[in-house]
Amino acid sequence: MFSKEEAALLRKEFWTSFGKSFPRKWLLYNTKIKGVALKFVADKKQAMICLDLEHTDELMNLLYYDQLLSLKTLLETELPEVIYDHAYELENGKIIHRIYVPFEEKFNIHNKNTWRACYEFFVEKMAILEAFFYEYEEVIKNV
C-alpha cells in the first residue's frame, strides 16, 4: 500500500516518464471545440484513451455525441474496439458522454512493470483517435 504522497509521486513519475519516452505534442484539450477533449486515463485499475464530451450545456453534449455517433462506423474501421458510452460515470460521480478505447492488459499505475505496454498502447491508439478527430473535425463542429 502506498501513502498519498507516494502514490502522487508515482503518478507524476508515470506521466513524466511517458512524456520523455514518447515526446510528442498531443491535441488533447486543444480541440478548439468547447467541452470536447481527448484524454489519456491511467489509474490503479485501468488505462484508456478517450474523447470526452463535457460541455456545460447538456444539449451541446448531446449534439456532439449524436454527430460522433453518426461517424461510429468510420471510427470502428480504425479502432474496432472503441466503446461509445452516453452515460459514463467518472470517479467523482459526474456523468459524461465518453468515447473510449480501454487498455485490455492488466494495468495498475502503481506497478511500473505495466507502464511500458500502456505507453505503447497510448501512442498507437491516441494517434489513431487524433487522426480521426482531425479528419472529421468540421463534421463534429457542425452541430
UniProtKB/TrEMBL annotation:
Pfam families documented for this protein: DUF4268
Taxonomy, superkingdom: Bacteria
Domain DUF4268: start-end pairs: 10-136
InterPro entries: DUF4268
Protein name: DUF4268 domain-containing protein
Origin species: Polaribacter gangjinensis
